[in-house]
Amino acid sequence: MTDRQTHGPDLQRLAATEILGLIDGVSVGEPLPLTSGTQLCNAELCNVLEYLIPQLLGVEHPEWRGESLDGFYLSHAVLDRADAVELAGTCILITDQRVAPFVLNLVVSPDGTIDRIRIRLGEPGGGSLKISGPLCTSTAAGTLLLELDRRLDRVDWVYDLVVQ
C-alpha cells in the first residue's frame, strides 16, 4: 500500500496489527469477535478505523479532511478469506451524530501491513458530507442497521474508494 500518511501514528499498520490479532484462530466465514452484548463495536480496531477511514477518504475527497467518525454499529464482521475481513453496518458521523451505512473490506499481509482497503460509505442524505442519515440514538438508526445486510448490493454509495 502506498504511503498516504500525513502525521501521527501509522493507522494502517495499527489496523493491520489489530486484524491479525482478531483473525487468529477464526475460520473463514466465521464472525470476528468485535462486539460484546450489543452491535456497537468495542474493539481497538474500531477505534483505529474512526480515524483511518476519514484520513484515507480525505486524500481524494477534501470534505473529509478534519472529519472523524464516532463509532460503528455492526451488522456483520466476518473473515472473508484467510487474509481478508469484511465489516458492515452503520457509522456515526462526529459532526452531527447521525449514522451512515458502510462496508469495509481489508486485506492484510502476514508482515503486519494492509495490502488493500475498500471503503464504501454513505448513501445520499443530509449534513455537511451529504450522507447523514437518522440520528444515532433513533429508532430509524436501528432499523437502518437491521435492514442493511439485505440491501447492501442496492445501496447507492456516495463514497467508494479502493486504496492499495
Question: Could you describe the 3D structure shown?
Answer:
By secondary structure, this protein is α+β, with helices and mostly antiparallel strands. It has one domain. It is 26% helix and 29% strand. The protein is built from three helices and five strands. It has a five-stranded antiparallel beta sheet. Strand 3 and strand 4 form a beta hairpin. Helix 1 crosses helix 2. The N terminus is likely disordered.
The number of domains is 1
Structural class: alpha+beta
Q: End-to-end span in angstroms? A: 4 Å
Query: What's the overall geometry?
Result: globular
Major β-sheet strand ordering: 1-2-3-4-5
Largest sheet: 5 strands, antiparallel
Strand count: 5
Strand content: 25-35%
| Count of DSSP H/I helices | 3
One letter per element, helices H and strands E, the order comes to HHEEEEHE
What is the residue-averaged pLDDT?
A: 91
Model regions low in confidence, pLDDT < 50 over at least 5 residues: 1-6
